[in-house]
Structure formats: C-alpha cells, structure tokens
Amino acid sequence: MQCVILAAGKGTRLRPLTDTTPKPLVKVGGKTILDHIVSALPEDIKEIILVTNYLEEQIKDYCGANFHGRKVKYVSQENPAGGTGQALITAKDLVKDKFLFMYSDDIHGAEALERVVKEDNAMLVTEVSNPGQFGVVYTNEDGYLDKIVEKPENPDSNLINIGGFVISPEIFSYRAEASDNGEVYVTDMLTKYSQKNPVKVIKQDLWLPIGTQEQLLAAEEYLQNTLLKEDVVLHK
Q1: Topology (CATH level 3) of domain 2-234
Q2: Is the dihedral of CA 74, 170, 41, 81 positive or negative?
Q3: Does the pTM of the predicted model rise above 0.85?
Q4: Which ranges constitute the DSSP H helices of 99-139?
Q5: pLDDT tens per residue across span 20-73
Q6: What is the dihedral of CA 76, 78, 83, 88, to 10 degrees?
C-alpha cells in the first residue's frame, strides 16, 4: 500500500524556522516532522510518495530512496498555491491502488492509522473546541462522511479533517472547482468521492498539528512530557 504525503508548502507561519528549512524537516521532540509521520505508519505502507516543491532538494537528500524501511518516490507540485487538491492530482500517475493520504505538518498516533488502513474508504478526524478554523466534518447517521466544509462561520459539528484518508485512485475522477482564493481543496474532492464510495469516519486520539509557532511549542511540550513518562516507567 502507498502513502501520499503533501510536502510542498513554504510553511510561512513557522518562519523564521522555514526560511532555510522545509516545514517537513523542522524538528520537534528531537526528530523531524517527517520522521514522526513515517515512523507511525502501519506496516501495510510499503511505499511513500512525497509531493514536494519548496526546498525540495533538502527533502530528497534527507529521505533518499528508502526512508524508515519504505521506498520513496518524489513528484514536484509546480504550483503549491494551487491547494491540497492540486497537490494530490500531481501524484496521480504514481498511485497504483488504494492508498493513504497524509499532510506533512500533523503528527498522528499509530493506533488510529493502523485502524484506518484496514478500511476500503475511511478518514481520520478529531474533536476540537474551535472547529471553524479547520475543515469541519459532518457525518450521517451511520457514522460515514456526509460532507466537509472549509472554515464555516457557524459550524454545528466539532469534528475536523486532519488528513489520514484511505481512498482509491477513483478520487482523481472527482475534480473540484477552485475556491475564491484560487485553491483546490482535497476535501471538496473527498466530499464528492464519498457520495458513491462511503467513507468511514474514525476518530484519532493523538493529533499534534504543527502549522504555527504556538502549535510547534505545544507539540514539543507534549512529546517531551511523553518521553519523561516513558523514562520513568523504564527505570522503575
């Protein structure tokens, strides 16, 4: 099984760290974000497709042809401003079968990733107190995806999209129109895809977003505390 990871953005909200380092290689808890992401992937994932652009040679040099025991392929997104949907479409020719889709600025718990890849079509979500800042996920009565709405003003769901989609290449048949800011959202493609391919919604217990300096500090604190707890257990 393949995993497509979007790693093309400039990470402007993490400046000045990202002035000379691509966001996926920013370190948190002593490891790069990409190290955290890939090391948590299930054994089912045999190959990684990295969609790159900004400072992409650094990513290629760091990951090489084999990263954490997985083969790696690269594809460059010519227009990173085109959005997540355009980034996914960039990987179209490399995708062979059912695959996992991830963002490169979110650290995920391994247990939920293990669960999601066992499904034919599924996605990971988490609950937050400020859903209007994210892509808000609405489910039907059976717990499957109904729709995803990007940053609604008055959301009546506290479930948000965090990546971790398991989908088939059929997703490329569901093109979405660009938003007012010119971006094509992968969430719009997924909403269309889900109308014919029921997408199971699975909650992720551990999700550490790293899109801003504040989130980076929070993730660093969480990971350091986790390491301290593990050290205490090991030395009891």
Answers
A1: Spore Coat Polysaccharide Biosynthesis Protein SpsA; Chain A (3.90.550)
A2: positive
A3: yes
A4: 110-116
A5: 999 999 999 889 999 999 999 999 999 999 999 999 999 999 999 999 999 999
A6: -40
